[in-house]
Amino acid sequence: MTDHLVEAFGVVTMIPVVSRNSALAKKSSVCAGDLLTETQIIIRDLGQLEELQEQNVGWLKSQQRITVDNFDHAWKAVNKGLGFCRIPDHMLETLETTQVVQLPIEGGSRYQVPLHLVLPKMGQTGSAAMSLYERLLADANRRMDSL
């Protein structure tokens, strides 16, 4: 986010997954070339329009893509065998994963995304939003201190 101060909040690890029935799932090793012709399921950046300038992250070179609004939709698309996607590891821990497999991508089996907390209105932030911000920041600081 530009023009705002930010606080580090954490990191999310993204794991590439595909339906167990996909041809990619049968490979012992997947390279970038294998992914070029497979359908990639990506999550739409729902930030404000002026903030969308070059906000894309990760590998986005597949010739075919399906863009969805959230990870729940991406998960459903992967389960239906529509393509591969990177799903947050914490989300995978809570889902039924018997119909998907992690892709063993050479040089890309995990991708980490930094998360930040932002208070764009700073002094004009309401008390409820400020309380939430302070609690989230305190929790993030406790997690970082325990490392």
Textual characterization of the structure:
- This protein is α+β, with helices and mostly antiparallel strands and 147 residues long.
- It has a domain of 98 residues: Periplasmic binding protein-like II (D-Maltodextrin-Binding Protein, domain 2).
- The chain is 25% helix and 27% strand.
- The chain has four helices and six strands, in the order βαββαβαββα.
- The strands form two sheets. Strands 1, 4, 5 and 6 form a four-stranded antiparallel sheet that branches.
- It is elongated and about 55 Å long.
- The two termini are 26 Å apart.
- About 5% of the residues have low confidence.
- The whole-number mean of residue pLDDT values reads 85
Strand segment count = 6
Question: Any idea of the CATH topology of the domain at 13-110?
Answer: D-Maltodextrin-Binding Protein, domain 2
Gyration radius (Cα, Å) is 18 Å
In CATH terms, the superfamily of the domain at 13-110 is Periplasmic binding protein-like II
Distance between the termini: 26 Å
- Based on secondary structure, the structural category is alpha+beta
- Helix share of residues? 25-40%
Beta-strand residue percentage: 25-35%
What is the string of helix and strand elements? Answer: EHEEHEHEEH
